[in-house]
Prior knowledge:
- The chain is of the alpha+beta class.
- Among the domains are: 2-83, no CATH class; 95-162, GMP Synthetase, Chain A, domain 3, CATH 3.30.300.20.
- The chain is 43% helix and 18% strand.
- The strands form two sheets. A five-stranded mixed β-barrel has the order 1-2-5-3-4. A three-stranded mixed beta sheet has the order 6-7-8, sandwiched between helices.
- The radius of gyration is 42 Å and the shape is globular.
- Residues 249-315 have low confidence and may be disordered.
Amino acid sequence: MKYLYRVAVASGLDYECMGDAALDLHRDDRVIVRCDRYQDYARVVGCLAAQPIDVSELERNRAEQARGRHVEGQHTPEIIRRATPQDDIHAAENDERSRTMHSRARECITFHRLEMKLIETHCSFDRRLAVFQFSAEGRVDFRELLRDLSQEFHMRVELRQVGVRDEASIQGGIGPCGRAFCCCTFLKRFNSINVKMAKIQGLSLNPANISGACGRLKCCLGYEVEHYRELYDAAKARAKAEAAGGGRAPGGSGSEDNGADRCRDDRAAAGGAPDSDDSEGAPDAAAPVAAAPATASAASAAASSPASTPGGAQG
């Protein structure tokens, strides 16, 4: 019986492989993996299937879903054995050799004046393959560089161009939250991130706040966006239900009318006349103005009559 595992051979280089159940592999175990053209020293990341796999079906699915070339080859790699202490020493020597190859490759890139940034170099366990990972703004013609590196190291050389997000996951670092980058710890697949996710969560749209070290939008913007969407949809549905039940849209003119009614009730309770917005209250307001001339004429008539004045009685 064989199980499906995921192993990591270097930073940014990991793939699926199958191993026999008799090996009894666990996380962080060191193993030797056999690929199509070489063998490599790898670390077990985890078991991908709790049940034994069908090898023929696995190969068929791999052939259908394969996109482009794979560093491990066209067939699924296989774990042949556990690593021994001698294998660990040999792997450490290969790591030292990889650093030397990395420095030499940088010199060759400078000599050919190529606009590319070398990120990581890996030498296989049997020293038959060297993988150079680099990033660049566009396509790079590295045919001459590839020829020089092959002649320099006397092994098969593969140059792999990666994106800016992959570059951040390979190099690692500390994010603004104070924790290690998600892409180099637990995040194994990059999902699509857009500015709308930040808008839904009410975050600042300042690029300095929503961009990561790679210059792209932070991957963590997609962690809680579904929860915010559920809350938004629930609030929207509740608002529609309240509007349909009360006959007035919440927060609209109905609330203003209710406030005006409460003001009228308070004034009426205090003994004042309630305010009115219709035309029936206009005559009441104009009545004191019409009565003012009649009072003035009565006063003038009383002043002209002798009987009505105290001075007439004395004369």
